[in-house]
Specification:
It is built from twelve helices and 18 strands. It has helices at about 15, 45-55, 90, 100-120, 140-155, 170-175, 195-205, 270-275, 325-340, 385-400, 425-445, 450-460; strands spanning about 35-40, 60-65, 80, 135, 165, 185, 190, 210-215, 220, 225-230, 230-240, 255-265, 285, 295, 305-310, 345-355, 365-370, 375. Strands 1, 2, 8, 9, 10, 11, 17 and 18 form an eight-stranded mixed beta sheet that branches. The chain has a four-stranded mixed beta sheet with strand order 5-6-4-13. Helix 2 packs parallel to helix 7 (about 195-205).
Amino acid sequence: MTTPLPDYHNGSFWFDSLDDLTPPEISGPLPDQVDVAIIGAGFTGLWTAYYLKRNNPQLHVAIFEAVVVGFGASGRNGGWCMGIAEGITGMLAQPKLRASGLELLSAMQDTVDEVGRVCQAENIDCHYQKGGTLTVATREFSTAAMQAYVASLHQLGLTEEDYRWLSATESQARLNCATNHGAIYTSHCAAIHPARLVRGLADVVRGMGVAIYEGTPVLEIGDRCIDTTRGKVTTDVILRATEGYTDSIPSQKRQLMPLYSMMVATEPLPESLWEDIGLNQRETFGDGRRVVIYGQRTADNRFAFGGRAGYYFGSKRKAVIPPGDPALGQVEQTLRTLFPQLDGYAVSHRWGGLMGVPRHWRPSVSYDTQTGLGAAGGYTGEGVAASNLAGRILADLVSGVNSPLTDLAWVNDTARRWEPEPLRWLGARAIEFFGERADRSEIHNNRPSRFWGPLFDGLTR
Ligand SMILES: Cc1cc2nc3c(=O)[nH]c(=O)nc-3n(C[C@H](O)[C@H](O)[C@H](O)COP(=O)(O)OP(=O)(O)OC[C@H]3O[C@@H](n4cnc5c(N)ncnc54)[C@H](O)[C@@H]3O)c2cc1C
């Protein structure tokens, strides 16, 4: 009997713009036994396989993927390969955690270059361009706090090369958006085409001898074995790389909260419009509001732009967000408010994707040598580069290598599980509601929201 093909298009512009989108490879029986079973063929699973095989070419590594390579967040994100990760800014602000935070920051900055190096060495054409990031002060009152933040980073030893303040004139020359009172610029970010990266990486690991079993959901993790819809596989090591979909495995429920982020892409825009808008180095951009927005200029001259966060009761997951979802209309409206120049130009794609959020809101990498169980993730929407670092750490942990990476603060920093419903839903809704209220009031009144800010910060710790 042949297994029916799952619906494998993830709805994104990125999948649509691939040269070819091959259906999942679900032919052939599963192996009875492997050395390492990785669950999930997104960036985390693939980077882990890549470094594991590089360190140990003889290992029999197999990846089991429910749908198709890159179906999850890795094939549908904003394409910011960024030199920072969730939680690091908070660590820098706390004297006791500062040294660990600085180590992580330095490792993340190196990671942006590492991704570029691997893409070059392995011929992965993912439109990698290290043009940096602009965090624009779209509200005038925020300039003082943003300048103070840059000064605080310099006090910690970071340089103007790492982070610098751009005056309104300098910032507008780089990005002509409706309100631009200055910006923080960091060079530590590359814009990429995420689906080209994830699928290119899959081709590379296949070439190294890693088997990827697509269309093969893992139903449960057992003692040195996994149960899949296509049979059981015994294995020495099981590595979970399932991020926003982790609840699909019953024993892993409430480890990561699945939160949606929404994106739109415009049609390709003419050069004359880009001469007005800027982003000549394909800098990625955002504006530091609580309900994060993020954008990039794609290699084919579109805006790919995202924002918002959404949670469904009971951690319900939707494989694909319908293009008519009202949240997508709000993201498009935010883009058009920032860039009135887009009047008359169409949005061609609308989609959403799942991020994984742990209870302590920062990534972790774990591996237990006794049970052979490991996991990496919890990037909270900032995993494009972080998954490379996490994959390198996990590969070192599994290989028994003590390296500077295995001393980083993410190692075995696993969060406790999320609260059961309805508490989880109430918390997620409160964050969404208060964050949006605070952003709206700040944009409208041009002054900091005094009440909502601290409350929002309190809820996300
Ligand atoms: C819309 C959006 C925009 C984003 N923008 C950015 C950005 O610009 N920069 C940034 O740094 N981060 C961004 N992120 C986050 C980033 O994309 C993720 O952190 C990263 O891709 C996570 O990679 P992953 O491999 O851990 O998870 P995923 O890519 O989600 O992969 C998990 C895989 O596991 C598979 N799977 C799940 N359960 C099972 C199972 N039981 N059996 C078998 N397979 C299973 C899934 O099908 C999936 O393919 C964004 C996320 C979203 C959703």
